[in-house]
């Protein structure tokens, strides 16, 4: 059988403010040093599991960033699959326990030297392949709506169907894991409704973004790209925006951002073909931008239920 687990490279600025340090934990049961990680509980997403395991093993809350690596290895007869993210540490304090009895904050090279397993060292290498303090922006395609041919009213008023409302509920948990603090949507009912559960839970306003509509992007993508640039100017620890748009505009914008980054000499890290970005209804692109505003990584989440 396949056993799923999740974890992260938990990081924070070091004492100088010029670099970062990462958390490495000692597990007395295994007598090893590892990155914090653990099994996904029934009914739990891998994102949820990563944040929970960080809290349990290190005592720190965390906000996730870019996806780093998927690690496969065998545990007895089982195939274990572990997803790792970059995660910025929030408030917390380590308390020794039965699961982890020591935590060390170390520079990435020192952490790699201490880690017991090569697979964990590979994850740290993936973490250091891009600057840790990246700026996160989430591009959300609206959830499932009724067919246009079955709707008698204006297209802008076409609502989500029941399955779409369920997707929107799952999306709310997903957005929370990335610490989303600003919401923008194309002024269509299905886009606003996709973000509504998170907006209600977080007490946030959904701002209209007509420049991100399919027609607006097709006519002139300049205003849409300018908005995305403004939304990523807050930097790490600042605004993390989620934008809900449509199925033609999102792939176009991802493609343009990726092309610009490649021409600047640093192709974005992604497990997808950024020349032909997928965009399923209810899916999310997690985009990570460097300090200069260049796209550094692009992670596609086809379904927020996993």
From TrEMBL:
Nudix hydrolase domain location = 1-128
Which Gene3D superfamilies would you find in this protein's record? Nucleoside Triphosphate Pyrophosphohydrolase, Phosphoglycerate mutase-like
Q: Enumerate the Pfam families for this protein.
A: His_Phos_1, NUDIX
Question: Is Hydrolase among the key words of this record?
Answer: yes
Family, as annotated: Belongs to the Nudix hydrolase family.
Q: Which PROSITE patterns match?
A: NUDIX (PS51462), NUDIX_BOX (PS00893)
- Give the originating organism: Actinomycetospora chibensis
Q: Which domain of life is it from?
A: Bacteria
Cytoplasm keyword on record? no
Q: Which UniProt keywords apply?
A: Hydrolase
Coiled-coil parts of chain: none
Q: What is this protein called?
A: NUDIX domain-containing protein
Q: What is the lineage of its organism?
A: Bacteria, Bacillati, Actinomycetota, Actinomycetes, Pseudonocardiales
């Amino acid at each position: 059988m396949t056993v799923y687990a999740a974890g992260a490279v938990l990081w924070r600025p070091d004492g100088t403010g010029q670099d970062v340090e990462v958390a490495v934990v000692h597990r007395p049961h295994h007598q090893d040093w590892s990155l914090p990680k653990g099994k996904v509980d029934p009914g739990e997403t891998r994102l949820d599991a990563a944040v929970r395991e960080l809290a349990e093993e290190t005592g720190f809350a965390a906000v996730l960033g870019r996806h780093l690596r998927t690690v496969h290895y065998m545990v007895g007869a089982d195939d274990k699959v572990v997803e790792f993210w970059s995660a910025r540490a929030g408030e917390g304090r380590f308390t020794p326990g039965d699961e982890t009895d020591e935590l060390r904050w170390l520079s990435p090279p020192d952490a790699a030297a201490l880690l017991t397993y090569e697979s964990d060292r590979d994850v740290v290498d993936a973490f250091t392949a891009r600057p840790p303090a990246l700026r996160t922006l989430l591009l959300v395609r609206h959830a499932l709506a009724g067919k246009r041919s079955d709707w008698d009213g204006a297209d802008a008023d076409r609502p989500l169907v029941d399955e779409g409302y369920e997707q929107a509920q799952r999306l709310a948990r997903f957005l929370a894991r990335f610490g989303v603090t600003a919401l923008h949507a194309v002024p269509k009912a299905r886009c606003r409704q996709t973000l509504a559960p998170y907006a209600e839970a977080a007490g946030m306003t959904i701002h209209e973004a007509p420049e991100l509509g399919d027609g607006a992007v097709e006519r002139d993508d300049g205003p849409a790209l300018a908005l995305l640039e403004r939304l990523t100017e807050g930097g790490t620890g600042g605004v993390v925006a989620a934008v809900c748009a449509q199925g033609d505009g999102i792939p176009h914008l991802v493609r343009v951002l990726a092309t610009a980054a490649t021409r600047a000499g640093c192709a974005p890290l992604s497990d997808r073909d950024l020349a032909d970005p997928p965009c399923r209804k209810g899916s999310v692109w997690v985009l990570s931008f460097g300090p200069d505003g260049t796209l550094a990584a692009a992670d596609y989440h086809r379904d927020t239920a996993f």
